[in-house]
Amino acid sequence: MLAVVISGLAACKDKSLTSYRTPKEPETDLAPTSDAMTPAAAPTIRWAVPAGWQPQAAGGLRLASFLVPGANGASAEVSIVSFPGSGGDELANINRWRAQLQLAPIAETELPGQEVALTTGAGQFVTADMAGVAADKGPTRILGAWLRQAERVWFVKMMGPPDLVGTQKDVFVAFLQSVRMAEGSVAALPAPADSSGANTNDLPRASGELTPPLSPPVGNPPMDSVAVPAEGGANLLWQAPADWQAQAGRPMRKASYATGSGAEVAITAFPGDVGGILANVNRWRGQAGLGPIDDAGLAQATTAVESQGLRLIVVDVEGGSAPLVAALVPWNGATWFFKLTGSAGAVAQAKPAFLAFLKTIRAP
Amino acid sequence: MSVAPLRFFASLRLTVVLLVLSIALIFGATLDQVHLGVWGVQEKYFRSFFIFGRIPGTEFFFPVFPGGYLLGGALIANLLAAHFTRFRLSWKKSGIWLTHLGLILLLIGVGLSGLLQEDNQMRIDVGQTRRYSESFRETELAVIDTTAPDYNQVVSIPAAALTDGANFQHPLLPFIVKAVAYYPNATLRMRSQLTNPPPSVATAGEGTDIVATPIPVTANPDESNWPTGFVELVGPDGSLGTFIISTMLQQPEAFSYQGRSWRLALRAKRDYLPFAITLQKFTHEIYPGTDIPRDFASTIRLRSDDGRDDREIRIFMNNPLRYAGRAFYQAGFANNDHTTVLQVVRNPSWRIPYLSCGLIVLGLLVQFGIHLFAFFRRRLGGVPAPAPATS
């Protein structure tokens, strides 16, 4: 009897209609914007709209659409679509677009020639360029790109007449370069001096509140120190080379950059001496698969770089499985670490710029 | 009650059998957690009277094992019956009575929590104000009248009720909501991205451009289910169209009917609060050189609708905010420390475990105290202690 009553109560609680009145909410807050049922929140994406692209109605899965007008009434369409998950593998994405252009699917072995990686401030896009014949549109060219994040994949696609898409290719790439995720790195981006020739797109945040407009990056403005402000303390300042791209912020990082050669520069700071110079050098050697050294070896393994009143200890870990150039400097009760990592070629290529970069580091 | 059934329920053997069955239940549930996830296991094994199995190849279900409610209820009955038959009300046994009362209360409290507790979460960005929490697991179809300039009128249909063909009427809705299809998990693709897309189920709104494909429900805590469905709205003049509803859609479906503006959104079930919470600051400290959090804390401003409260509160690990019948725990963070995640627990019976543990402790203290007192009395009174047994 008790069982029946309890089951009945539970059933009523689960299946009854309810009504309630809420204060007025922004339109975007009515949909499941906060990802309450997802493991992690979807980041908000932002971009700078190139001149001439006309925003179209968005909705459903489509975050935004643009019409790109060309000569003689021709037009191409740009769409930005977001899916949770990984969004399929590279081959599936390429072959899906090829199918839209009535091209035969390619095999995995043919993939390397079909896709190009593009490093942007939001992460690494994979891009593809293909031309064929669309079912109801005649000759058509697709410029496609996708960006994977932990929980979500973003697709950006331009589709239209081959001539028009060809003339827009540089604009499309510039558009991808302008994409930013509304996370720590966005706030850290410097405001460019010039925003002429383009307007700014800024999608509403989950709350519907608009974040401050992000002006489009023009060229590669030099990046003065844009470290995330630490609580209760000032930050070191530095000047990053022009071809370094600021990366999305990570909890432990003061800043991250992707160098032009594909290596990564990570800047971190921790309170105290973090074990001292020898312990850190040996930690880095360990990461490269090399054995530890002692105090005697330390003098040979490290060099000192003077930078505007700061004395940085620089170590170049060569000959191991993971090449690494790193520098540390104690300052203001904390130890700051600057680390260049990546493939052997990428690190070797980026090393001169990294060493020059170390000399730009200064106290505020 | 006749003596024979009472004796059966009071049996110590029954206690042992029930405890063994409980151990087996917990063991089985732990193994099945791989398939069902932690919530699924709780519903199937602990918040049920029986665990049902299906005869292979049929849709016929039959009970295979007692569930948590049945075992817990039987343990309570066992304890009560033991008191009626074996225990006698006396001062000497008062500690045991108190301890058992605490145990019974604990079992009742667990049952009530299972029935009444609601677990929600709030995700708030720094600077953002939220006035609702969202369910972890339950989904609702919100039919929202947005016509009024200063408020939205919401009719909430639980997604669990959206079985194919179900009709929903409500005095605030000028149309019937008819469930055409509902998938607990689905993937969505733009129609233009598919080579040979199936015919569209939706006839209005964004759904005409979208293809929804049902996929198996996942229990992996690192993956999400994306409930999706199609509903037809039918007014006195006929159908308004069939719309797609999905938690994956980032904009609600919008339409006008009889001069009023409507929105349709499938979303995590919301619990609107009689107060607003603004996240002023989020701090996240880690142990140096690691990713291990040492402390994370949310500084919030709470403003009640009646104007009585407007204060700043710091919520951090093991230090929740208790307000308006809810407890707000610091549960996590996201978005590069820009977003805090608070777990919101609403459990009217949350005091029962504290009370029952207090009773158990008090009962044990009383019982041991009585024995200790008797021991000292014997010593001081010169009464010899019982001689140790010799073999």
Explained architecture:
The complex is a heterodimer of chains A (364) and B (391). Helix content of chain A is 22%, strand content 35%. Chain A has 364 residues and is α+β, with helices and mostly antiparallel strands. Chain A has two domains: 38-188, Mog1/PsbP, alpha/beta/alpha sandwich (Protein Transport Mog1p, Chain A, 3-Layer(aba) Sandwich), CATH 3.40.1000; 222-358, Protein Transport Mog1p, Chain A (3-Layer(aba) Sandwich). Chain A has a seven-stranded antiparallel sheet with strand order 3-4-5-9-8-7-6. A seven-stranded antiparallel sheet of chain A has the order 14-15-16-20-19-18-17. In chain A, a hairpin with a 2-residue loop joins strand 6 and strand 7 (123-134). With 391 residues, chain B is of the alpha+beta class. Chain B has three domains: 3-116 and 351-380, no CATH class; 119-130 and 273-346, no CATH class; 134-271, no CATH class. The radius of gyration of chain B is 28 Å and the shape is globular. Chain B contains five helices and 18 strands. Chains A and B meet through helix 1, strand 1, strand 5 and helix 2 of A and helix 3, strand 3, strand 4, strand 5 and strand 8 of B. Strand 1 of chain A pairs antiparallel with strand 5 (151-158) of chain B, so a sheet runs across the interface.
Itemize the secondary structure elements and their pairings.
The complex is a heterodimer of chains A (364) and B (391).
Chain A: H1 2-15, E1 18-23, E2 45-50, E3 54-56, E4 62-69, E5 75-84, H2 90-100, E6 115-120, E7 123-134, E8 138-148, E9 152-160, H3 162-167, H4 169-178, E10 180-181, H5 184-188, E11 198-202, E12 223-224, E13 239-240, E14 245-246, E15 253-258, E16 264-271, H6 276-287, H7 295-301, E17 302-307, E18 310-317, E19 324-331, E20 334-341, H8 344-358
Antiparallel strand pairs in A: 2-10, 2-11, 3-4, 4-5, 5-9, 6-7, 7-8, 8-9, 12-13, 14-15, 15-16, 16-20, 17-18, 18-19, 19-20
Chain B: H1 3-10, H2 12-46, E1 50-54, E2 61-66, H3 68-85, H4 94-116, E3 118-125, E4 129-145, E5 151-158, E6 167-168, E7 176-183, E8 186-190, E9 210-214, E10 228-235, E11 238-246, E12 253-257, E13 260-286, E14 293-304, E15 310-316, E16 321-323, E17 326-334, E18 339-346, H5 351-380
Antiparallel strand pairs in B: 1-2, 3-4, 3-18, 4-5, 4-13, 6-7, 7-10, 8-9, 10-11, 12-13, 13-14, 14-15, 16-17, 17-18
